[in-house]
Amino acid sequence: MEYTLVTLLYWAFAALGGLLVLTKILRYGSRPQKFPPDGPITTMKLGGQNLFLLNDPAVIRDLLEKRSNNYSCRPDLYARHFGDNLNIALRDNDEIWRRQRKMYHVRLNVRSADRYLPYQHFDSLQLLNDLVTNPEGWVQHVQRYTASISSTLLYGWRTPRTSTGYVKDLLEAMVLFPDVQAEAQKELDDVIGSGRLPTWDDRANLPYIRGVVEETLRWAPSPLSAAVPHSAKEDDVYNGMVIPKGSMVMINVWTLNHERFANARDFDPMRYNAESTLTENNAISQDSPKRLHFTFGAGRRVCPGFHVAERNLFIAISRILWGFSISRARGVDGEFTVINRDAVTPGMIVRPEDFECEIKPRDSIRETLVKEQWQAAEKDLDSEGNFTPEFIQASFT
Ligand code: HEM
Predict the structure, then answer these.
(1) Residue 324: is it exposed, middle or buried by C-beta count within 10 angstroms (0-12/13-18/19+)?
(2) Three-class DSSP category at 345
(3) What is the spatial distance between Cα 194 and Cα 226, in angstroms, rounded to a whole number?
(4) Among 200, 201, 192, 184, CA closest to 120
(5) Does the beta carbon of 116 sit less than 6 angstroms from any atom of ligand 1?
(6) Is the peptide bond before 37 cis (omega within 30 degrees of 0)?
(7) What is the pLDDT of residues 213-237, one digit of tens each?
(8) Going by CA atoms, what residue is nearest to atom 40 of ligand 1?
(9) Mean pLDDT of the region 276-293
(10) What pLDDT sits at residue 30?
(11) Cα–Cα distance, 340 to 346 (Å, whole number)
């Protein structure tokens, strides 16, 4: 009994210590300059659990992609036992997960994602109209946009992951990097003009905007892969390093999204050549060193919703930049409010800290067009705010 208590206490302290170290590594905001990760793999112990943090694209390719048979499991996380173990993101790679994955693939593959575009275009109109009529409520408008799309696509199933944060991150980047905003708007003015809104079909002709979308995914703090670890099915040896069965293997997204790039905290859409952003699948390429970022995870557990996420982001970002100027807000004293671009919320799941900004229509032509388009689109909603059967039929046939 005494032994059990001591053992329990030992593991509790070891796990707590490990968690603190891990939190420190993953929270880039508090990561000292020379703190690990150094080298391609950082190893540590979380209680009795071995943890391997992957910091190098080539290692991700060698382990999560090439040896995906061994690294597509999920560790037996405590969270799994709260529900019925049917959450695909937490489930081990058993037969049920494989069937779930197939089902998600059917719902979320590139063709299905194209079929949801009418909803995304529709919801983005409401977003723009909300921004025209109530710019101060921008955080709620951005949240509503993604939540509404997710629930529509998935017939009531709401994914815990949304791109809400990323539209917010884009707005922050546009305040901090006004030259990027100006360049993006120049491209939109040249290619689209003020007479119509950009659509997903314009993507091929908007290389700078494509760069803005991928840069948003790279630049924003992205803790998701860290929150959803992979695990080793069997003992493995990699470059002489033993990775025991059951070890947690995590993608160190922050390091991967930053350490390969010069001036990594600058928001620079020109990092990517136009060809690499044209191919949508480059965001999840199995040839990991060619990846632009690791925000969607890797291997067989890679995010199956990325086509939908890419569309959500492209449509929202291109339309917001087409219609609005985003600038620093002024406080009551008339001075510009300060934004710390690297400030994040505390804890293991980091998000950027809240910030203030001013969002204004770029001119009255765009403002009028947004209002008109929303008035016309609103007819597709019934009295409860749901899509009419006619709209659903027309969009799906
Ligand atoms: C910008 C938005 C999104 C980001 C950054 C994101 C990121 C991720 C990441 C990092 C993972 C874990 C990958 C890994 O284990 O290596 C994941 C898994 C997953 N995502 Fe996403 N996601 C996004 C949007 C979506 C959307 C819109 C959907 C559905 C409509 C979705 C559905 C899923 C599912 C079902 C899984 C679990 C897959 C599995 O464990 O087999 N995600 N996502």
Answers:
(1) buried
(2) coil
(3) 42
(4) 200
(5) no
(6) yes
(7) 999 999 987 655 555 789 999 999 9
(8) 89
(9) 92
(10) 39
(11) 15
Which one-letter amino acid corresponds to residue 262?
Answer: A
Q: How far is the CA of 104 from the centre of ligand 1 (A)?
A: 11
CA 320 to centroid of chain Cα atoms = 18
The class of domain 2-396 in CATH terms is mainly alpha
Burial class (CB in 10 A: 0-12, 13-18, 19+), 273: exposed
Angle 307-313-314 from CA coordinates, rounded to 5°: 90
Place of tokens 């086509």: 307
Question: Any known ligand binding at 357?
Answer: no
Six token digits for residue 96 = 């049920």
Mutate to test the pocket of ligand 1, among 148, 296, 307 (most ligand atoms within 8 A of CB): 296
What percent of the chain stands above pLDDT 70?
A: 81
For the chain, the helix, strand and coil percentages under 3-state DSSP, each to the nearest 5: 55, 10, 35
Average pLDDT, stretch 161-169?
71
Residue nearest to atom 38 of ligand 1 (CA): 89
CA distance linking residue 130 with residue 149, whole number of Å: 16
Which helix (H) or strand (E) segment holds residue 360: the answer is strand 357-361
Measured distance CA(164)–CA(158) in Å, rounded:
13
Three-state DSSP at 248 gives strand
Cβ 357 under 6 angstroms from ligand 1: no
Residue 184's pLDDT is 98
| Cα-to-centroid distance, 366 and ligand 1 (Å) | 34
Using pLDDT thresholds of 50, 70 and 90, give the confidence band for residue 162.
Answer: very low
Question: What is the residue with the minimal CA distance to atom 21 of ligand 1?
Answer: 303
The CB density around residue 147, as the number of other CB atoms within 10 Å, is 15
Provide the CA 391 distance to its chain's centre, in angstroms: 29
Cα(233)–Cα(63) distance, rounded to whole angstroms?
A: 12
